[in-house]
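Notes taken during the Thursday session

The instructor put the following on the board and asked us to keep it in front of us for the whole hour. The protein is Fe2OG dioxygenase domain-containing protein. We were told not to look anything up and to reason only from what is written here. First, the residues (320 in total):
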Amino acid sequence: MSELEDSLKLPVLDLSQPHEPSFLPSSSLLKACQEWGFFYVTNHGIPQNLFTKIREFSDHVFRLCSDTKLKLGPSSCLKTYTPRFIASPYFESLRVSGPDFFASSKASIDELFGQGKPEFSEMLQEYGTGMMKLSKRIIQIILKSLGDGYEKKFSDSEFGNCHGYMRISNYRPPDDIEENEAEGLGMHTDMSCITIVFQDELGGLQMRSKDGKWLDIHPCENSLVVNIGDLMQAWSNGRLRSSEHRVVLRRFRNRFSLAFFWCFEDQKVIVAPDEIVGTGNPRIYSPFVCLKYIKFRESNEVGNFEKIGYTVKDFAGLKV
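Then, after some discussion, the predicted C-alpha cells were revealed:
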C-alpha cells in the first residue's frame, strides 16, 4: 500500500514575468519537471469568469438523465461522453476536441439540448483557443529550461502541429464518502505532451512520488496545475517525468475539473532529438507513432478502475 504524505509544495511559473534565459527560473522549473512532473502556472491569461461559466455548463450537462447523456456515449456516432463505470464508478466526462472547438462542442450540445445554444459553443471555443496558446507558451519555456537554443530549434519543428482537447469532468461521490474516502479516478499517467488542469475548491488531485508516496496537489487560487505527459517523457528521453496521479474524493459534493490535453499529431513519429539525449547517453525509448500508443493505452484501460497498468515505458521502452 502506498503511503500518504502531506501536500506537495510545487513551484509556480508566473507568466507575467520575463522568461528570457537570463531571467528564467530554470533550475526550479526543470527540477519540478524531472522530480515531480507537476507545477503551477499563474497569470495564464484565461479569465476567471470563463471557468465559472464552464462549470455552470457542466452542471447543466451532467444533471441530464442517463439516456440523454448516452446519446453521446461509447455506442453513439459522436462518442464524446464517457459515462460512469468506464474509467471509474464515480467519474463521467464530456470531451471537446480542437482545432475547431466550436464545431466539436456544437455537435454534442445540439444532441443534448437541441439547436439554439450557440453561447455554449462560443464559450468552449474561447477556452480551447486560449488553452492552445497557453500550452504552446508553456512548452516554449520548458524547452528553454532544457537547454540554450532549444526553444527556437524545436518549438515549431517538433511541436508546431500539436493539437488539443478538453475533458469536462464530474465526480459523483459514493453515499458513504463521509466515512471512507474513495478513488474518483485510479492511478494513471496522461497520454499527452502536457496537461493543464483546473480543479475546483474540493481538490483531490494527488501525484505519486518516486518512492511510492501519494502527495496532495491542492487547488491554488488563480493558478492552474500543469503536468508532463507520456509523450513529453518519451520525446525528452526520460529527462522529464510523466508521473502517476489519481483523484481522491473526500466530501459528499460533486467535484468539477477541467483538463486540457496538448498532444502531438496522430501520425507523428516520436523520437528524442540527439541534442536532448546528450552525448554518451543511451536512448531509452524506441521511435513510435503517437496514435499507435494511444490505441495501445485505450485498449488496455476500459473498466480498469484501480490503476492503469500500462505506460509509455511498457509500449516503447528499451532495455539499457
